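My hope is that you will study the protein record below before we discuss the fold together.
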Amino acid sequence: MGAIDFAKLPHIGEPLRRKEDYRFLTGAGQYTDDIQLANMRHAVFVRSPHAHANIRSINKAAALAAPGVVGVFDGADIAADKIAGLPCGWLITDTNGQPMKEPPHPVLAQGKVRYVGDHVAIVIADTVENARNAAELVEVDYEPLAAVVDVRDAMKPGAPALHTEAPDNHCYKWAIGDKAAVDATFANAAHITRLDLTNNRLAPNPIEPRACIGNYNRASDEYTLYVANQNPHVERLLMTAFVMGLPEHKVRVIAPDVGGGFGAKIYLYAEDVAVTWAAKKLNCAVKWTCERGEAFLCDAHGRDHVSHAELAMDKDGKFLGLRVHTDANLGGYLSTFSTAVPTILYATLLAGQYTTPQIYVEVDAWFTNTAPVDAYRGAGRPEATYLIERIVSRAAWELGLSQDEIRRRNFITQFPYQTPVALQYDTGDFHACLNKANELADVAGFPARREASKAKGLLRGLGYSSYIEACGLAPSNIAGALGARAGLFECGEVRVHPTGSVTVFTGSHSHGQGHETTFAQVVASRLGLDPSQVDIVHGDTGRVPFGMGTYGSRSISVGGAAIMRALDKIEAKAKKIAAHLMEASDADVDFANGEFSVKGTDKKVTFGQVALTAYVPHNYPLDKLEPGLNETAFYDPTNFTFPAGTYICELEVDPATGVARVDRFTAVDDFGTIINPMIVEGQVHGGLVQGIGQAMLEHCVYDRETGQLVTGSFMDYTMPRADDVPSFTIGHVCTPCTTNPLGTKGCGEAGAIGSPPAVINALLDALAPLGVKEFDMPATPHRVWQAIQSAKQ
């Protein structure tokens, strides 16, 4: 079945209410911290108060003697059991042909700590309170060292070195594109726009903090790890094969209900390994639940790029070449996918929606005394979009063009389109997105609204962002050639029960996306069922055959496609059973709306009859078919999917105070086929709030001298609230994806990708009369006020 036919099926495009919301709204959800096991103890981690220090000694005696304590372990104990360090899942090759520098990432620090919050010891007791009190008794003798937290300092000669494997703090230099061709293009350009910018560091802050419970069964020599995680099979693979050296079939990882992830719950963390290891050591279940203050310190952060970009154009504003250099902050250690974010997931998107014929990108990645940096909602795509959309609007202003006109002159119009940075876009309609955004945003009425703001002593600006992202990371063989240390396929099992109801086992994982509803709609549409007859199972390596989890907006396009392939097998077998019941050839059997019929006759049987026959095979072709109706399929995409769109932000600024307020925001997206528009709209709204939060409020700040995290609580790290954003205007264009059977492209990250440059472009448009030309996120009142005052000097 092709994407066009799929989109016409019942339930596709219906805004069904989410099936899972009943249990969440009635308090019946089960998150990791809700799980209570017999003989369970509680863990608290001793964390480094220093950004950089040698560990002279650790004295555990007082902690071990404290009430309720059953165990205290440090890095030496972990090493004694030959537990390896945490692996990085993506190998980047340096421009010199050598592999990146990959220092060890110990589960518990061994001899040195490298950021505030680094894991030093684990204390396990009968209650959280007793574990916390005992942790205060662990005596660690530190030798403080000079720290470096900013990439601009980390690269300086003589900067404090974090790792002996990287004495200059440099992990790798990576590049893509033809440098000589780009340099020649710039030499002949009529106009060059230059831009320096910083993409600010963010803390993910999912509503549910991380948690994990390790358990060990002596009788079967099996481990179970309950964990708030986005991809339990990958967690198991990394922990067994690379860290603990365990047979994979002896470890079960269960990710129950998960309250948000945003990328921060993709990774294998030290806490997950520590509680699993300690469970066998102490012969008891060990639970750890992260506190919010800990999350700021030890969850992987996002973004933190410093870039210089140059855009070469002809006299009419036609793009000729783009040249970019980025310094990426990796933090104190390599996280699971950290090395792919500023390379494969960033530089390959710098073509944007434009026909720029020559692009060269160079990336230097650096270690600093900060928390590891990894994928955060969008993962490289927001960084790329922010850079390209900022410099495109900047070029428009320099050439005296409107922001939409310069985009129109450079949009890609012919597909498929091969970019100069490896990707090939299969389809899209960028002009349609821009036109619809202009219409919905009432851009024609902007001059009048600007004058009305001026009459109130306010400045009003308009900002554009035309983003494109790559989702459904694929295919595995290409990703492997680019350094991926895992496959990027997905698995789906469709189990039809004798009564005709269905259970689907998917390797994708839901942590707020609504998979239990949208996947049920897909299956119900194919089999002629009501979505209430379809249950979705995910998040358990003991029940799901295999899977790569949820990230990169891959669930419906990759996980859904695997389910579609399993449904193809179900339909093919069911037709054979139906043909036997109707005494016909299966080649003459049609299937639609839950009924099998013989072409040219009035013979019909229902899907329910076929399902029952498969399990009660009294009238059944046992010589040709096995009983049962249960099929599994794996799907490895042939290409990325490419959601795209145009966002328009309109904001007001009070020049006296620096307060900026987003007044109107319009988002037009092309997500291909939409399964459930209500869920898609919710995903877009959430992404927009996160993107506007980055642009206006959020900023993870370390003290440049001490390495202390200054923004370590919600008192200092500002999260967006309802009154920080307007009611959004949402629109859609549909060009179905050509590389998967559903025609879907993914929607979970778009809002966070396209919104930050739209906001900052609007801010710069508002401040242009005051002479402000440069501004880096976030647009807090103080920073905006400072920019205004600096422009006056």
Observations:
- The chain has a mean pLDDT of 97.
- The first helix runs from residue 3 to 7.
- The longest strand covers residues 319-331.
